[in-house]
Amino acid sequence: MARKKIALIGSGQIGGTLAHLAALKDLGDIVLFDIVDGVPQGKALDLSQSAPVEGYDAAITGTSKYEDLKDSDVVIVTAGVPRKPGMSRDDLLEINLKVMEQVGAGIAKYAPNAFVICITNPLDAMVWALQKFSGLPTNKVIGMAGVLDSSRFVHFIADELGVSVQDVNAFVMGGHGDTMVPLARYSTVAGIPLTDIVKMGWMSKEKLEEIIQRTRDGGAEIVGLLKTGSAFYAPATSAIAMAESYLKDKKRVLPAAVYLNGEFGVKGTYVGVPVVIGAGGAEKVVEISLNSAEQKAFDKSVGAVEGLIEACKKIAPKLA
Ligand code: APR
User: Fold this and answer.
1) Which string of DSSP letters, residue by residue, matches 175-193?
2) Cis ω on the peptide bond leading into residue 122 (within 30° of 0)?
3) DSSP-derived secondary structure letter, 125
4) What is the ipTM, given to two decimal places?
5) Which of this chain's residues are annotated to bind NAD(+) (predicted)?
6) Which residues sit with their C-beta closer than 6 Å to ligand 1?
7) pTM of the entire structure?
8) Which residues are known to be catalytic?
9) Which are the contacts of 204, defined by CB distance < 8 A and separation ≥ 6?
């Protein structure tokens, strides 16, 4: 049986980390793609030279030709520009929308059967545009944000309580921006909801609010520290978890930006919700019940994403 093929469009900070993780996890052969000639080839060679030490057999190649994406099983898209200090994810809209048009055409031509995971920001609008530009079915094009935002939330909770990250499960819905909705009621420590953790007096309400805000600002905090780019280790590892669930048909329930067709009362928009990821791609949206405050926060987040999608339609009328 042939190995699976994973194409990484964009070979920058996240792209290179994705390639390393995919190789270490033996997910398949890897093609790094970038418009800057030399970068994907250089990273591929460097990663190939670490194979003898790690013992992985994946073939890792670099290219600037879309035809090398042929028959990819998974395509992960990070092509575009990242944030600089002071920029919001939304500031990237116009530049990265043009990138999605090129990338969408390349995927449509050479990898129409792939499972596509978009990471490029502003995430929810870019994955929406990528699906439109590529014409691939909506269940095969999803965005990575919720796993990352939830992982940030988990890290902060575990760190605050002094417990293992393994016993914390956290859950963030909505758009990947300032309006994201970390859900305390559905986030747990060994099965105990955070709301009960507060009632028990293990964490103060104020501390929980602080952690929720720090989660929302998680990306900006790292941009502010790095100054020359944005986060890449945690985004890459989050996307690999999604790719692995698809390739191994694990059917993990992960928060991700998926196309909603009436679920949660939303139609025609990509936004972060829990979804089962398996061999069928985004197989099932899990419609959890939201209380009125959660629903209000989610609606506000959906409104922000819809605003970005409207802005995309103005820039690229063919998306309308
Ligand atoms: N086609 C292919 N690759 C492109 C294109 C394009 N049209 N335009 C830019 N690229 C490449 C760049 O040459 C660069 O190597 O995309 C890569 C992006 O890498 P980085 O600048 O290192 O950015 P990274 O940190 O990997 O983030 C990528 O993910 O989280 C988001 O906001 C982030 O949108 C950004 C994306």
Assistant:
1) -SSTT-EE-STT-EETTEE
2) yes
3) H
4) 0.99
5) 10-15, 34, 96, 119-121
6) 9-15, 34-36, 39, 78-83, 92, 96, 99, 102, 119-121, 229-230, 232, 235
7) 0.97
8) 176
9) 198
